[in-house]
Amino acid sequence: MGDASVIHCSVGPDVIDPGAVLSRVGSDEDGAALLFVGVVRNHADGRPVSGMRYDAYLEMAQKELGEIAREAAEQLRTDRVAVEHRTGELDIGEVSVAIAVSSPHRAQSFDAARYVIEEIKKRLPVWKKEHYMDGSDRWVGGVVPPGTGTATGGVTKARTST
Amino acid sequence: MPLSVNTLFFASYRELVGASVLSVELVEGATVGDLVKELRSRGAPFDALPEEPAIAVNQTYAMMDEPLGQGDEIAFIPPVAGG
Question: Which of A130, A133, A146, B51 could form a disulfide with A48 if both were Cys (CB 3.0 to 4.6 A apart)?
Answer without folding.
Answer: A133
